[in-house]
Amino acid sequence: MDEQIIATYCLCDDLLQAMHHQDAAQCQMSDAEVMTTACIAALRFRGNHESARTMLKQYGYIPNMLSKSRFSRRLHRLQGLFVLLFKLLGQVWKTLNTEAVYVIDSLPIAVCDNIRIKRSKLYPDKKFRGFIPSKKRYFYGLKVHLMVTKDGQPVECVLTYGSFIGKYLERVAKLLCRSWRLFDLTWRLSTGARLSVLSVLMPCPLTCRPGSDPASVC
Fold it and tell me: How far is CA 120 from CA 126, 140, 214, in A?
């Protein structure tokens, strides 16, 4: 884990230095450390920021760790940097993926359980209520559509409303790719068609906010 934490911090810090990003003078915790904490939470703690905060402070990786509320506010202000980091890594993995074999799959993000749907005010529209065929149950929230390489490296990610149907991805793929094959959820794109199907479908990935329509183009 030590090497992973150090590599993650170096990657975030190098990205910010390349952008000539300057932290505020009064900040006790740098933006690179905030990004590192969020990345380690995703890599090691299933997205639990509180567990990542506690571990990194307890073992001395980030001694000046912010409180839970201040960390959350700083994290939301860095949204654009996370999108840039994801795009940068995605482009690197696309370049290394010489076979141009990608896997597309979707998973739900429920904002509340079914019994609380009527009381939830985050997404008031009915189109945010989707269905999970594998579990044979409804959910209320968003869907994540993720494109990864055959080795599991993510290259594209978009958010849509819960009732979004994945068959629209197939229609877009037919228009973009002259030669393609579909085996279950595996898409084989020609070398000249590496332009992401998802980025064309959703021009602004990872920018959905409560109350907004993450898939208005559909």
Answer: 12, 9, 18
Which amino acid makes up residue 31? D
Q: Could you tell me the pLDDT band of residue 52, with boundaries at 50, 70 and 90?
A: very high
DSSP bridge partners of 104: 147
**Do 169 and 136 touch, CB atoms closer than 8 A?**
no
Q: Is residue 210 part of a domain?
A: no
Residue 99 phi, psi (nearest 5): -80, -15
Q: Which one of 77, 109, 130 terminates a domain?
A: 77
Confidence of residue 167 (pLDDT cuts 50, 70, 90): low
Pair 116, 196 in one domain: yes
Long-range contacts of 87-96 (CB under 8 A, 24+ apart): 88/15, 89/153, 89/154, 90/154, 90/155, 90/156, 91/155, 93/149, 93/153, 93/154, 93/155, 94/149, 94/155, 94/194
pLDDT digits 0-9 by tens, 65-114: 999 999 999 999 999 999 999 989 988 998 898 887 777 778 888 887 77
Cβ contact 35:85 at 8 Å: yes
CB-CB contact of 15 with 27 (8 Å):
no
- Residue 130 and residue 51 share a domain: no
- Residues 185 and 103 both lie in one domain: yes
Domain count, the chain: 2
Domain span including residue 163? 98-201
What was the pLDDT predicted at 80? 92
DSSP 8-state secondary structure symbol assigned to residue 175: H
